[in-house]
Design a protein that fits this description.
single chain; 311 residues; alpha/beta; six-stranded mixed beta sheet; 6 strands
């Protein structure tokens, strides 16, 4: 399971806002958990949103993904399948290395070398809440002591999802990559594993700890929150996805590091790729295609117009 955690990382920030209530003012990661909202319904026939940007000889489809799903969702059909089948290249956030290489990268970056156990970095009250959360998940309270706070937060968040039926092997990227390999398509990664881990690892420790504390406070809502996010994705409710992201990343450094800066970088990639002929299927986390600093918004700044594919 360890090798799948990296693919899961960029779902976790969404959890910070999964329970945000519309009437409440913006809250930072360190604030108390807001009240839970009603969970949306996943349709029998999911139709996630799809966009396209094109010129005379280049077409790039933009598809928002969810990195972990329950098995059985039939999202790969209709316009999504048609766009993928018409493409020569698959572009994803990161190409996952082999398990041994992935384990080494995780060990190098996620293990705390200071010798200070994670729980000793928490206040007395936060430590008690953290230990209670681990106990509620049937985990030893010392389970993540050797880890840095950001990776402990990611690990902790994954457990309730696995218990509720989500499968790390059922993510959108896995399905697309398997199909691309079967067709001998060219597969491109926008970022390296070291870069993706580094986005979290380079956060100041106090931000990492607030990130962990918030996830502890909302641990009981994780499964419903994920169900809500998947439902909005499956219903192509982009506005709701944007609200989840914005509510979850009120802390500026998190928002810029995990969303807006990466979207700006990817817009440069798309702009440069438009100079080459061909058809590309670009699949990145759904949160990157929603909100004021979305990839589409960044492309607009560069004079590239994206169009929603209706189906």
């Amino acid at each position: 399971m360890m090798r799948r955690w990296l693919s899961y990382l960029f779902i976790v920030p969404i959890f910070l806002g999964l329970t945000a209530c519309e009437a409440a003012p913006p809250q930072s990661v360190g604030d108390a958990a807001p009240q839970q909202t009603e969970v949306a319904t996943i349709p029998d026939d999911p139709d996630p949103a799809l966009w396209v940007v094109k010129d005379e000889d280049t077409t790039i489809y933009l598809f928002g993904t969810v990195h972990i799903l329950k098995p059985g969702l039939t999202w790969f059909d209709e316009a999504v399948k048609e766009a993928f089948d018409a493409s020569d290249e698959l572009v994803i956030e990161m190409i996952e290395p082999d398990p041994a290489a992935m384990m080494k990268i995780v060990n190098d970056m996620a293990i705390d070398r200071t010798g200070v156990p994670l729980r000793d970095k928490l206040s007395e009250e936060d430590r008690a809440d953290y230990e209670a959360a681990l106990t509620s998940l049937n985990l030893p309270v010392a389970a993540f002591d050797p880890l840095k706070p950001w990776f402990a937060s990611v690990s902790l968040s994954l457990v309730p999802l696995m218990k509720s039926g989500y499968d790390t092997n059922s993510g959108v990227e896995d399905a697309l990559t398997s199909r691309a390999k079967a067709r001998n398509m060219k597969i491109i990664g926008l970022e390296t594993p070291e870069q993706q881990l580094g986005f979290f690892d380079n956060l100041p420790e106090d931000v990492q700890i607030r990130f962990l504390n918030f996830n502890v406070d909302t641990i009981d809502d994780m499964a419903d929150g994920m169900e809500n996010m998947v439902a909005h994705w499956a219903n192509a409710n982009i506005t709701a996805l944007a609200e989840l992201m914005n509510a979850g990343l009120e802390e500026k450094i998190l928002y810029e590091t995990l969303l807006s800066n990466r979207n700006a970088n990817w817009a440069v990639w798309v702009d440069e790729r438009m100079d080459q002929p061909g058809t590309v299927f670009m699949a990145v986390g759904a949160g990157h295609l929603a909100g004021e600093t979305s990839l589409q918004a960044q492309l607009k700044k560069r004079g590239l117009k994206t169009k929603r594919v209706k189906y």
